[in-house]
Amino acid sequence: MNLEQEKEIAAKEAVKLLRDNMIVGLGTGSSSFYAIREIAKLVSNGLKIKAVPTSNKTKELAEALNIPLIDINLINSIDITIDGADEFTSDLILIKGGGGALLREKIVASLTKQEIIIADSSKEVKQIGKFKVPIEVIPFASNYALNQIKILNGIGKIRMTGDTPFKTDQANNIIDADFGLISDPASLSKKLNEINGIVGHGIFIGLTSKVIMGKGDSTVIFD
Ligand code: 5RP
């Protein structure tokens, strides 16, 4: 089994949790792609859901696959969200944002009753931080934020697409910050939240109900 197959197995397991009339958050990234494809099949077979995408890319995919969408500002909660992660620990601390959608993903997760993370087995870590923490910053504050990250002993770099800064769906920049292995993710999360101009970061704590990890041809659950 390769990692792509593990993502697909995890995605298929996660969509079994969907029920009629649920509001469903749709994640962003390659693992989420498998879930969205499965959800589209269920919808075409009569499952009645309304979905909230976590990025413009996911919105386009959901529309192309005829998954009914609902405006996030018309709802007060989301029943279940299926999303991916870049790293996770067994106590459900995550790094997300490799695809740059961390801000909407965090907002959707915050509204969600059952946040299900799907992952291949390469994403499980003892301590987060090998994957650089994606941090969304308004362009005006980019240099300020880089300097503040340095004060927190991080080495930040603006994410680029070729010669130009990568732009999020909010037209912001992403700083990928290396803090080494993070011994106190809650403290770092709080300190990053306090930096003016940073609108979100990829450390997710207390937002996840369950991780479904593909491992070989089966799944392992962390909850
Ligand atoms: C996007 C994310 C993704 O969930 C994360 O990067 C994992 O992606 P993939 O499933 O492609 O490995 O946080 O912002």
Order of helices and strands: HEHEHEEEHEEHEEEEHEEEE
Report the C-alpha radius of gyration, rounded: 17 Å
Low-confidence stretches: none
The second-level CATH architecture of the largest domain is 3-Layer(aba) Sandwich
Pathway: Carbohydrate degradation; pentose phosphate pathway; D-ribose 5-phosphate from D-ribulose 5-phosphate (non-oxidative stage): step 1/1
Family: Belongs to the ribose 5-phosphate isomerase family.
Enzyme class: isomerase
InterPro entries: NagB/RpiA_transferase-like, Ribose5P_isomerase_typA_subgr, Ribose5P_isomerase_type_A
Structure description:
This protein has 223 residues and is α/β, with parallel strands linked by helices. It folds into 2 domains: 3-124 and 205-216, Rossmann fold; 133-200, ACT domain (Alpha-Beta Plaits), CATH 3.30.70. The protein is built from 6 helices and 15 strands. The strands form 4 sheets. The chain has a 6-stranded mixed β-sheet with strand order 2-1-3-6-14-15. The chain has a 4-stranded antiparallel β-sheet with strand order 8-11-7-12. A hairpin with a 2-residue loop joins strand 14 (210-215) and strand 15 (218-222). Helix 1 packs across helix 2 (30-44). The longest helix is centred in the first third of the chain and has 15 residues, at 30-44. The chain is globular. It binds ribulose-5-phosphate. Ribulose-5-phosphate binds next to helix 2 and helix 4. It is an enzyme of class 5 (isomerase).
